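Q: Predict the assembly, please.
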Amino acid sequence: MAESKSIISFLTVCCFILPTLLFAAIEEEPHKEEFNEELLLKPLPDRKVLAHFHFDSKAFSSSSNGGYHLHLFPKAIYQLVHKFHIKEMELSFTQGRWNYERWGGFDPVSSSNAKPPGVELWAVFDAPPSQVDALWKNLTHTLSGLFCASINFLESSTTYSAPDWGFRASSGNLRYGSLPREAVCTENLTPWLKLLPCRDKAGLAELMDRPSIYRGFYHSQRLHLVSSGFGSDRVDSKIELEQTLTVVLQPTTLRWAKSYTPGSGMQPNWSISTVFGRKINKKCVLAKSSNLYLQLDRGLVSELKNKGTDSDSATAESSITNPLFELSSTPQKVIREVDNLKDEESSILYMFDIDKFADAKPFDLAFSWKLPVVWTCSKAPLLANRFLMGSGNERGAIVISLKSVGHRPSLVGTGASEDRCKLHINVFQVVPWYVKVYYHTLRIYIDGQVQSAANVTRKMRVSPSEDKVSSGVLELALTLPCSMKSAALSLDFDKGFLHIDEYPPDANQGFDIPSALISFPDFHSSLNFAEDSSVSPILSRLQKRSPALAYTEVLLVPLTTPDFSMPYNVITITCTVFALYFGSLLNVLRRRADEEERLLEERGKYIITCLLSGITNM
Amino acid sequence: MKEEDEVKTKSSTMKEKKLTRFWEWAISAIIFRLILIFFFPDHLSQLASRPEVSTPVTSLRRLAEGYWLKKQASISPYAGSMYHGSPLLLSVLGPLTVTDVDGQSSHILCSLLFVIADFVAALLLRATGQKLQSAYFQSSNSLGLDKILGASEIYASGDISALFYLWNPLTILTCVGSSTSPIENFLVILSIYGACTRLVPLAAVGWVLATHLSLYPAVLGIPVILLLGYGPDSPPKKLFLQKNSVETADHSSDSRLHHVKQGTDSAISSFSWKPIVLFILWASAWSIYILALCGISVRQNGGLQEMFKRTYGFILTVEDLSPNIGVLWYFFAEVFDFFRNFFLLVIHFNILFMILPLAIRMKHRPCFLAFVYVAICSMLKTYPSVADSALCLGLFGLFINQLLDMHFSFVLFCGYVGVNLLSPVMHNLWIWRGTGNANFYYATAIAYAALQIILVVDSASAMLNHDRWLRKLTTTITKT
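A: Predicted assembly structure:
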């Protein structure tokens, strides 16, 4: 008995001590996994506030632990990456449309976080091209389960496509799909939050009060995955998971609404608590860094310079002294953009470390304006819109219109000589099969004049849609003159007719054509900071050079519907007509006149008598 | 209208009604088409996308898309579900459909080609009609009916059918409406003409090309073979035999006359195998040639198998459910997926099952048999258009003398006019205004199908009655 007791005590000791030892061993490796949470706030010119949550998880795995023991990094994502050989993947759930004209289209936040409405998913696989489709199908199902969304509809080959170069450079391993009609709500946000180590119980995610963030004008939750080194050997593999939530909110407080007069141009004062209805209590203890940034646009900074007598006042450490606005807390650090172009204004970032500010009491940053101010965000060189032409349910045309915003010539990217300045754009358009596009009707208008396609298109790839099998993809690289005011692309289409089972429950609402993507390969939206970017993932993200992108509207195409209540009637009536044909024609062919009948009867009788006589003779 | 222009002229034995100003009328039909083409191009481009005129198989717009895909995007013309026609047509008509920078399509060359096709088809119809007429005279002479028939008037069926074909509003619509069906119709008529005049290579090339373009003319192989074997339409063989037996009984003493009669009769009714063997040889030679040409042109795009899948497969499986004047689009849009294959079989067997009974009953009238087949196909086709009706009505004109006592001719005339006026209205209500629904249009399609059934059944029964009437006449003659 005593012996067994000692064994049990030994075991219990082991049970308690060994995990702590293991845990200590992991603690010793600080770079094993990493989690950062950051929030970027930015006042927008149309009295709104952009809030951009940025959660960044990294997992470095080495062969020593087999890579299966995860502490911070979500296991579901880790398994997903392993199982489906994902090299890169992005999933976004968006509601509302990013307003490129007012909220800007040429800064890193908009070009990577302005997404088409509904769900957009693309993935690059680290697998031979023959397996990619199967992997994609499985991936959609897994993500569908993981995020409580109908991503599994992207499984069908009619909904996804394999862009070659129009979406992003790929080598046949890229799949792209979007569901424009997917409604995004809290049921998608909750599983997304589950991937965070603190969920929304602590840290910046605590601000996500559901009613406040879903009340906004734009809401986009995004999940971006990059993995490397999983293919050959697991010695040095790494997964980076970037989760962002971008919301555009209206900070309407009662007091501001009372004092607001339409012409004054006075911006509303806001604070974290009025925007989100909550304050930041404490940082997520598992996060390596937890920062809040306030970004002032280039346009705003230049206004600041114009208004303020002292141009350096805005950059002074004590921002309370500036003439335009007032901050309730003094930022820890002011980061100025270092721009290589001299005539450009540079944006400013104020940094607040949550750990310091939310130490004693919940942190609330208030931003109050002193003077009315009007500024504009930096826009992409062309504003893209898309619309439908034609009436009736037989045919129509898709038109993508591009309007020049009158950009400064200095913005024109590399290789732009002054005399023959050219603007390169890429158009990527996916069209579902029931919109039967005639690609030979592609017309390109520049300032209202039809141009021959050969002059304007640099590159073109068309993969036409196949009925009930695949959707059509148009990838078009255009070279437009910089001096043009507007350009338009038009494509004629016929509307298809579907089988009654293929119509969605509310067929008369119409069908959606997913957003087209216009990208400007020569225009790279990036902010350069003198600060060391490795400190904060969001800073490094802002510094990353990425081409400016613009998504167009989703189009709603009404399609003709058959009568859904009539299948039996149609079958019976049509079959009756066929029976009428068959029966009456056969009857006419078979019918004999009187004498013919007599003749036949006689012949029949003759044969019978012959037979009978034959039998009797036998 | 045409009857007004007819004057009676005396034929050798019978009174034959001839159209005097045939050429004037024919030329004026061509001029009318040219006026339409040159002065109303915008209206015609609207017409080109009408479901009555262009089907997914015959649409010139889809052909232009296929050509663009092949030339500009350098991928298979069959990529995507746009083009479903022949690759040969693509290389012939494709360059004519290229649009210039202004977006104004220069379809005028194409339209001119269709006008020529229409005109030549009308001339061939006329020649076929004259051939049939002379065969009719010959057979009635040999039956001794010429004296009785001489009292009644005989219409010049060739002229009538040619003019009817040229002035038929449906043909004009097809011709100016930018679809490839004028060429298909021309080829069908060419093969019938070739068989009538025993020009075996011509019959073979018409048949093979028509089958290649639209598959359904394949059933015309049987009437073409019968035509080559028996010669043009004549009363049943039995009548000649009956007459011969009576005459041998009567004139057994006069051996010389008997001998001559026997000789002429055998020339009329015996089945000659030589042209058929020739036809089969020619047809196989032509089909090998055409397949080789197709094979060369689709070499890079998946080969012949892909071509068959995209052309014949598309025709047979009713993949495109866009509305047309037939009933099958709505049927297959509504039918449960589970039964789809079953009903596809039923529809196609409806055509195939009728081939044999008709061929047996009407083997002595192969031209009429061809007409009946064409009419049945135009009704049961998966993507029918008014072009099929135009062809069928054009052939109908060839048998105007035999089919004079059709019961429902007035109903048919009114029905055709009514359906052709109502169908665009219903289409407009449903598709463009959204005030009607699909059933409105379907109802006109059903009415149209019923009309075609009446046409087929009534004309078949009228032709059989005509044969009975001839039999009655011969028996009375031989008895007296």
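The first strand of chain A starts at residue 33 and ends at 44. Chain A touches chain B through 55 residues (CB under 8 Å).
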